Structure formats: structure tokens, C-alpha cells
Please model this.
Amino acid sequence: MKSFATPAFAFATALAGIAPALAEPPSGRWTAADRATEAVTGDVTFSPTMIRFQNGKTLPLAVAYTVHGTMVYKVTSPSNPVLLNGNRICREVGNAPIRSVAVVDQGFGIHSIQFYTDAGGPHIKPKGMSDACAEHSYETSRR
Model:
């Protein structure tokens, strides 16, 4: 479900004490949608309170906020676990812990998870640019 919230709409509804309804990403088993994701995280099990990676490692989550229809979660016990093939989620930052994740609905049953070492999560950037240290895509339903 796409969000129709614009900044003006969000401001108006905030003044009125109304929050626009946004669909949470589907819970359950998500299948790695590309080779990089297969090599690093493998398939995952996602819920609003946890991501469980294929090797059993987890990131505990708590819903933080939404931005432009994207659900952002705080990692309640920050870490950058070693996953498949000795890979870490964010290789470029060494052992820096993952502090937040954003789940983006790409459409057609595909969701991507963006991983951030900044507790603030995603920041508004020019279109096509991200400050995520890693992003992995998953098939969340049959197309």
C-alpha cells in the first residue's frame, strides 16, 4: 500500500491529531532477491520486533517512525553481526553497529531493507542517493 501523505497533509493531520494509516511490511520469511543478498544475509524472517538472518543471528527492532511511507525501526541492541560467508551487513564500516533500519516497499512483492549505523535512520537526500551503509532486497510475496 502506497502512502499518499505529503508534507502538507502530514502537517495538517498532525495538527488535527490524526495519523495517516501506513501498512507495515509483511511479517514472515523473506527470500533473498539477488546474489549479493544471498551471499551476505541469505533469506530472513522479518517481524516488527526482529530480523532473523539465515544463519540465526538477529537484530531486535522497535518501530521508530515513518518517512515518505517508509517504516523506520530502531535496533534495540545495536550490532553488526557476522552473517553468511563471514560477511557483515555493513562491511565498509568495520564493526560499527547497525542502529536503525528502513524497510522500503519496492512494489511487485519486493521489499528492501536499508541498514544504518546512525540511530537517526534515513535522511532526506537527492533522489537516488542513500546514506545507508547497506541495502538488501527480498521477495516478500509471490508475484
Observations:
- Confidence is low (pLDDT under 50) at residues 1-21.
- Strands lie at 28-32, 44-47, 50-53, 58-67, 70-79, 98-107, 110-116, 134-139.
- Residues 26-139 form a domain with the Lipocalin fold (CATH 2.40.128).
- Helices lie at 7-16, 35-40.
